[in-house]
Every structure is written in structure tokens, then in C-alpha cells.
Amino acid sequence: MYVSQILKTKGANVVTARADDTIARVAEQLATERIGAVVVMGEGRIAGILSERDIAYGLARHGQDLLALRVSDLMSRLVATCSPEDDTGTLMEMMTDRRVRHLPVLDNGKLAGIISIGDVVKARLSEMAVEVNELRDYVAGRTA
Questions:
Q1: Is residue 78 in some structural domain?
Q2: Could you read off the pLDDT of 44-94 as tens digits, one per residue?
Q3: Is residue 97 part of a domain?
Q4: With CB atoms 3.0 to 4.6 Å apart as the test, which of 3, 56, 82, 83 could cross-link to 103 if both were Cys?
């Protein structure tokens, strides 16, 4: 399954933040939207990504002062991205190798969506179910 197919199912909405937003504001946004990361935009391009993990690490380092910090203080600046043409195998490899749970989707340089590890697992399970049914049909002699 391709990223473009996943986005057709889940939608292309991406929650974004600015580098000068406070961590308190983004933490509230993550909770309200029930998501694990926001894409940080600056000057029409991706400037970074801020995840729940970044906030947890920030809490360990900064304690109660964390909420007053700016997104730019904690965000990951090197952002792994994917394209609509990438498949689930490519996504799994990228997420594993880079140890990330979210990949913004870029289509011709423009932000077109975001894929989470949960989206990839769901898509892969769907693919596997189709493969299992096809194998059952083949073994039972029910092929077309």
C-alpha cells in the first residue's frame, strides 16, 4: 500500500505549530487533537517536528520550566519525510532506522499529510489480510 492510499483513508489534515509557540500551547494542542506530534512550519516550509517524546525528554531536562519554553527549544530540526509514492515497506524501514513515529508527507515540496506508525501498522495489517485471503483461495483452488 502506498502513502497516497493511506492519506485517502485517513485524510490529509496536518496539525502544525510555529517555532515561537510555547510548549504549553502545543502540549494542549496534542491533547485536544489526540495526536502524537505537530509539524513545525516556518516561511512556508517544514522547520521541524515536535513529538510527545520531545516533550517528555524536555520535562526530564527542564522540569516545571518546560511549559514556558518555545517549540524551537525542543523540536527536532532534522525531519525525515516521505512521499505519496512510498510504500509501507519503505515507511517501516525509514521509521525503524531513524527511530521516528511520524513522517510528514511532501508532495512536490509541499506538505500533503502526515503518516504515523499506527497508520503504517493498520495499512500493513490490511495488506496482510488480503494476502492471506488470496492464499486461502489459491490453496482451495478458487482462483480466477
A1: yes
A2: 899 999 999 999 999 999 999 999 999 999 999 999 999 999 999 999 999
A3: yes
A4: 82
Burial tier of 22 (Cβ tally within 10 Å: 0-12, 13-18, 19+): middle
Cα distance from N-terminal residue to C-terminal residue, the chain: 23
pLDDT tens-digit readout, 108-117: 999 999 999 9
Show the DSSP H helices in the chain as ranges. Answer: 3-10, 23-33, 52-62, 71-74, 88-98, 117-139
Q: How many other C-beta atoms lie within 10 A of the C-beta of residue 51?
A: 19
Position 143: which residue type?
T
Structural domain includes residue 12: yes
Instruction: Enumerate long-range contacts of 94-98, CB under 8 Å, 24 or more apart.
Output: 95/120
Domain carrying residue 126 = 3-139
Instruction: Identify whether 144 is part of a domain.
Output: no
Residue 6 near residue 115 (C-beta atoms within 8 A): yes
Q: How many domains does the chain have?
A: 1
CATH number at residue 117: 3.10.580.10
User: Rounded to whole angstroms, how far apart are CA atoms 68 and 61?
Assistant: 13
